[in-house]
Specification:
1 helix; mainly alpha; about 120 residues
């Protein structure tokens, strides 16, 4: 029996077809492994970019908050002063209206008494 025809024998010569088949399988496995690795790296890169974007957006948000606070704090402080003035005027208006009603009531009482005195003396 010839050694050339025995499969899985280390001493059997390799043919061109055997090499093509072996390298074809190797190429497929290598291609799959590379695709998997590239896919994993792409996902990792995508996650890293997403994390970086989140950090940048957070920093921009904080900076915007700070800038807005710097711009609006003086405005709000002045508005607070104006609102206190408006509240004081409202209180003064309420007190004045109550006093006006009391005076109106007193005038009506005085008119009534004067009318009685005038009818008695007439």
């Amino acid at each position: 029996m010839c050694m050339e025809n025995i499969p899985n024998n280390a001493n059997t010569p390799v043919t061109k077809a055997d090499l093509k088949a072996g390298f074809g399988k190797f190429g497929e496995k290598l291609g799959k492994k590379l695709d998997e690795r590239l896919s994993e790296q792409a996902k990792a890169t995508e996650q890293l970019l997403a994390d970086q974007a989140d950090v940048i957006l957070e920093a921009v948000g904080e900076l915007m908050d700070k800038k807005l606070d710097e711009k609006f704090d003086p405005v709000i402080t002045k508005l607070d002063g104006i609102m206190k003035g408006v509240e004081a005027l409202q209180q003064e208006n309420t007190i004045g209206a109550e006093q006006l009603r009391r005076h109106e009531d007193q005038l009506q009482k005085h008119e009534g008494r004067i009318a009685k005195l005038e009818t008695v003396s007439a």
